[in-house]
Amino acid sequence: MSYDRKAPDEAKRKKKLTRLGGLTERLIAPALVKKSAYLSQLIAHWPQIAGPYAAWAKPADIHPASAQDKDGILTLSIHSGRGPEAIASSEDILNRVNSFVGFQLASQLRVRQDLPLDASKAGKATTESDTTESQPKAASLQEALDRLGATINAKSKK
């Protein structure tokens, strides 16, 4: 037997190397397009989907349920310290997400405490609606303090 002869398949091969991405792109691309479409829809409509959770949680990644993997996983980026609340609310959050897309996209929730606080909201735990509601209260409080001060001044002069 001679080992110098080339096999028929070997003669057809290219002599250039092929990138792995070029080989797998047509297999992986449809799944990535589908995944990115779900994630972009979640990000675009997150305030409507998440409701009260939207202030401290944002969707970071999604691994949709598939035929092989029955459990889809939604990963949220949350503010530090909100982990217990996110885990306790995970069923509600997942129900909101799944009802938005119309089927069970995810059945598990993962959290990452890596969502930064806005610089303008640093040190504040109030929302915009809270500040507008508290402004009249602050004005009435200031008026009450002014009246108290005037009363004290009037009594001290007597």
The structural domain count equals 2
Share of β-strand residues: 5-15%
Overall pLDDT: 77
Q: Let me know the largest β-sheet.
A: 3 strands, mixed
What's the gyration radius in Å? 29 Å
Return the CATH architecture of the largest domain: 2-Layer Sandwich
Supply the key terms.
158 residues; GMP Synthetase, Chain A, domain 3; elongated; 3 strands; single chain; 2 domains
What does this structure look like?
This protein is mainly α and 158 residues long. The chain has two domains: 21-120, GMP Synthetase, Chain A, domain 3 (2-Layer Sandwich); 126-158. Helices cover 53% and strands 11% of the residues. A three-stranded mixed beta sheet has the order 1-2-3. The N and C termini lie far apart (125 Å).
Chain-wise SSE layout:
Blueprint: H1 8-12, H2 20-44, H3 46-50, E1 57-63, E2 73-78, H4 83-88, H5 90-101, E3 108-112, H6 128-157
Parallel strand pairs: 2-3
Antiparallel strand pairs: 1-2
Summarize the structure.
The chain has 158 residues and is mainly alpha-helical. It contains 6 helices and 3 strands; from the N terminus they run αααββααβα.
